[in-house]
Design goal:
Blueprint: H1 44-74, H2 91-124, H3 130-141, H4 147-159, H5 162-171
Helix pairs in contact: 1-2, 1-4, 2-3, 3-4
Length: 174
């Protein structure tokens, strides 16, 4: 059974349409010939929020292994390139320099991946803080060429406009 006014599906026994409020079984109100019914436009955030959240989760999943590999390399006592190294540093100096550097970059990537996952979950669940965290991470992510740049620009395109703020606020959970 369908509503005569808006066409939405109705369950048996309802007296009023839950979508438009028209009494079930009554004829639709005729529209004047000059007025044309235009379906309401679905906003940019509504169309792209789930895709954006999923992309942030994928970003996190691809960043974690890189961070783990760098953290693993930082703990080696002898780097694989030590035999080929003819630089001004000895083995011990190379280990003292590269170990903390690779470990720091690796842990930075892991932290970045965790925050990216939080952004993805926040957007998918329409959390009130999700939009702002996504915008901040989008700006930071622009520096990560090429995929991070694309994701950052897409994030800012979806979430930055004023109408996007109002639309996200209307759908956000407190």
């Amino acid at each position: 059974m369908f509503c005569n006014q808006c066409g939405s599906a109705l369950t048996l026994g309802v007296v009023f349409c839950p979508n438009c409020g028209r009494a079930v079984g009554t004829a639709p109100t005729p529209m004047p010939p000059a007025v044309v019914a235009v379906p309401s436009a679905v906003g940019r955030v509504t169309r792209h929020r789930n895709i954006l959240g999923a992309l942030w989760l994928v970003r996190a999943l691809f960043t974690v292994p890189a961070g783990l590999v760098l953290v693993g390399f930082s703990s080696f006592h002898q780097f694989p390139m030590d035999g080929m190294w003819d630089g001004p540093f000895s083995h011990g100096q190379l280990q003292q320099f590269l170990g903390p550097l690779l470990g720091g970059i690796g842990w930075g990537l892991i932290i970045f991946a965790v925050i990216s996952a939080i952004v993805g979950v926040g957007l998918l669940q329409a959390q009130s803080w999700g939009r702002m965290l996504a915008i901040v991470m989008g700006v930071i992510n622009i520096l990560s060429i090429p995929f991070g740049t694309a994701l950052g620009i897409y994030t800012l395109w979806v979430l930055m406009p004023d109408q996007s703020e109002a639309e996200y606020r209307a759908m956000a959970r407190p």
